[in-house]
Amino acid sequence: SMAGNFWQSSHYQQWVLDKQDLIRERHHDLNILTEEEYQKIFIFFSNFIQILGEQLKLRQQVIATATVYFKRFYARNSLKCIDPLLLAPTCVFLASKVEEFGVISNSRLITTCQTVVKNKFNYAYSQEFPYRTNHILECEFYLLDKQDLIRERHHDLNILTEEEYQKIFIFFSNFIQILGEQLKLRQQVIATATVYFKRFYARNSLKCIDPLLLAPTCVFL
């Protein structure tokens, strides 16, 4: 969060990286690409996110947040880790929720990606946009984890191992999935409930609210 004191914010403490940090984190990519080629990839995908956001009629704030998520991810991970063409729309999808713009429907997101790739970026991609809703949702969970949104867990890790902690999240993700299916909710609603659940425990200990109470509350929201 960047609310309150910037110098105490997670952005300053974890994401203001100096040049040495950046070079160290991306040396795998710079074994293959020149610095200039690497920068051109980021310019390309910043443009992609901008055009995708405009086509979806998102506020500029949502587009800017998506671009920050995209750059943050690759500040800590190689370009080979996740295809940027999948990560870019996933960042837009997540940013629309975080900025409380309203959830973009999965089908609209995929259709708009297909249109943007075909009409605006056909010079770079001869094939159509290859990803579907399930890819976006899987990528979103990975992005959430890597964004360090699940970060405020040191209290819990004094009691649980990392593996036990992760198993709790897998258990309650399954719980929310099954509950949503029993209630005949759309997959998009179930996915949003899971994001709410993870975001709460990104900022609070598991001892704060019983997960068995929070999980159905997130579905209700």
From TrEMBL:
A single GO BP: regulation of transcription by RNA polymerase II
InterPro entries noted in UniProt: Cyclin-like_dom, Cyclin-like_sf, Cyclin/Ssn8, Cyclin_N
PANTHER family given in the database record: CYCLIN
GO cellular component, one term: nucleus
Domain (Cyclin-like) ranges: 47-145
Chief site of localization: nucleus
Family: Belongs to the cyclin family. Cyclin C subfamily.
Keywords: Cyclin, Nucleus, Repressor, Transcription, Transcription regulation
Places the protein is found: Nucleus
Protein known as: Cyclin-C
Highest taxon, organism lineage: Eukaryota
GO MF annotations in UniProt: cyclin-dependent protein serine/threonine kinase regulator activity
